[in-house]
Amino acid sequence: MEELEKTRDELNAKAEEHKAARDKLNEETKKIVEKRDMLNEQVKKLVHEANLHRDRRNKLNEEVKNAKILREELNRKANEAQAKVDALKKEKLPKGGESIAKLKKDLKNLEFKQMTSVLKPDKEKELIELMSKIQQQIREKEKMIEGNKEVKEAIKEAKQAKAEAEKQHAYVSKLADEAQKEHDLMVKLYEESDELRKKADEMQELFLKTKQAADEEHRKHIELIRQVHDYDKIIFGMRQKEKKDKKSKIEANAKKQVNDLFERFKKGEKLSTEDLMALQTKGL
Question: What's the whole-model pTM score?
Fold first, then answer.
């Protein structure tokens, strides 16, 4: 009996150890789940934000596409206007000589040379005279243009067309820059969400591993508790048998005592009050 009770207590102690280990693992599992869910929620928010940037990028790309179509149309008109100016100049103005644009470019180069070069006095004088000559040519040609109303109006229209084309080009560039910024933000957020998703997946793997370990501890706990209950049943049965055997032995002794007293009584022996009470309560 003592050996059985000792084994039973040892099994129960082991069962409690597995229960404590299971509870600890379940607590760890709970924390892992909370962290995993938090990461998944962050991923969800980042993906949502990234999708918003993607939608804005797509919208801007569509605007860029339409703006480019208009820009091409304005460029075409500007080129046509300039071609008209060139044709009118050939038709209305004197032939020969450099164009105003070419003269202005030459003048600008000479001015740069004057500012950046160390020249001898005579060379610098020649340079200044050449610059003055070019300036005079520019004034003369501009005066000719001023004097021709048709050419002047064509130049005005060409400048306006060019300005509109340049303005539209700037608008296209602005939209393209905004679209690129939205794209970069989208990529950045998707990359961040991917990193967090990897961490969430790691938490999921850890959750499964920890839960499996907790389930195993629970299984061992239940198995040992069943064994403890089996031992309890056996010990209880043995104790009941001991009680029954003890009771039977007492009853047998009492019966023998009563029989002995009764035989003495039949023989005419005088019984004590105690003996008579025994006969009364146990046998008669």
Answer: 0.62
